[in-house]
Design brief:
The complex is a heterodimer of chains A (about 150) and B (about 150).
Chain A: H1 2-31, E1 45-47, H2 49-58, E2 61-65, H3 69-74, E3 81-82, H4 88-98, E4 104-108, H5 115-128, E5 133-136, H6 139-145
Parallel strand pairs in A: 1-5, 2-3, 2-4, 4-5
Chain B: H1 3-32, H2 35-44, H3 53-70, H4 77-101, H5 120-139
Helix pairs in contact in B: 1-3, 1-5, 2-3, 3-4, 4-5
Classes of the chains: A alpha/beta (about 150), B mainly alpha (about 150).
């Protein structure tokens, strides 16, 4: 009870500080460029297997495998480079070596609504400033099932 | 309470205030200069709902700076300690979560430039920050000097 009363007594000045901190934050939001690197970068879009194959037939595509190492070793899209969150710093140099200007990057993972492919695609946009990044709808499962 | 004890508490309280203020002022200043990178680092934890990292990347550094300053303003000091302890809990939650999930990401705790991925040292350091906030909240309170 005493602890609760103690915290309650500190809550009012805490709220005051929360409000005070919001003032310069709002000013910064007004003056600074938009955060999160969203300027000029589109949200990664999903690409069907058929569309991805058609794209690969027309232009250079860099496939990025966001699945775990075992799945990647067991089989992947020809030429795909591995890149995933749990080994980002280790695998990123391999991606950078493989990537060529003008290439469309297509990230894929296991299948279904695979969030890893989307988040890896977003991270590539944010951290490397790549605009032409998309992810494969249906992932590896859809790729294997495609004719 | 004897005058000597009060002096001793004052000394401990001042050490805690200076330590926490220096730490959070440095952390806030480092991040306030580059909210875009901080937003990306927040996103890398993959814990926040979409769209939260941008506003948080603008607000959190200013909150840290405000709390660091407020530690030297008696009227709001208890609120500042409460917020710093709460921030400490949040930081520990994020860092431990990333560590458990094996995410190969940088902490983002002290602004951009920390290339070291989250590891046991990061977890220990963040826990120490939480301990500092809790200790400050527990110890640094108004004391009545009796004659």
């Amino acid at each position: 009870m005493r602890i609760c009363a103690d915290v309650r007594s500190a809550l009012r000045p805490a709220v005051v500080l929360l409000v005070i901190a919001a003032v310069p934050a709002l000013v910064a939001a007004w003056w600074l460029p938009r955060p999160a690197g969203q300027e000029g970068l589109a949200t990664p879009t999903a690409l069907s297997v058929a569309a991805a194959q058609a794209l690969a037939a027309r232009q250079a595509v860099l496939w990025v495998d966001a699945r775990d190492a075992a799945a990647h070793a067991a089989g992947t899209v020809p030429g795909a480079v591995p890149l995933r969150h749990d080994a980002w710093e280790t695998l990123l140099p391999g991606f950078v070596d493989a990537w060529q200007p003008g290439q469309t990057v297509v990230v894929f993972c296991d299948g279904g609504g695979c969030a890893a492919a989307r988040s890896v695609a977003q991270r590539l946009q944010r951290e490397l400033g790549l605009a032409d990044v998309t992810y494969l709808d249906g992932g590896w499962a859809a790729w294997k099932a495609a004719p | 309470m004897e005058g000597g004890s009060v002096t001793g508490w004052h000394l401990v309280a001042w050490i805690l205030r200076l330590s926490a203020a220096g730490l959070f002022a440095y952390a806030g200043y480092a991040k306030v200069l580059d909210p875009t990178t901080f937003a990306a680092e927040l996103d890398n934890y993959r814990l926040l709902p979409a769209g939260w990292s941008g506003p948080l990347s603008l607000y959190l550094p200013w909150l840290e700076l405000t709390c660091a300053t407020a530690l030297f303003v008696p009227a709001v000091r208890r609120g500042a300690w409460l917020l710093l302890a709460a921030l400490g809990f949040g930081f520990v939650g994020f860092v431990v979560s990333a560590w458990i999930r094996g995410l190969d990401i940088t902490c983002g705790c002290f602004g951009p430039g920390g290339a070291r991925p989250i590891d046991l040292l990061t977890v220990t350091r963040t826990t120490a920050v939480l301990a500092l906030g809790l200790t400050g909240y527990a110890i640094d309170r108004p004391r009545v000097e009796r004659s």
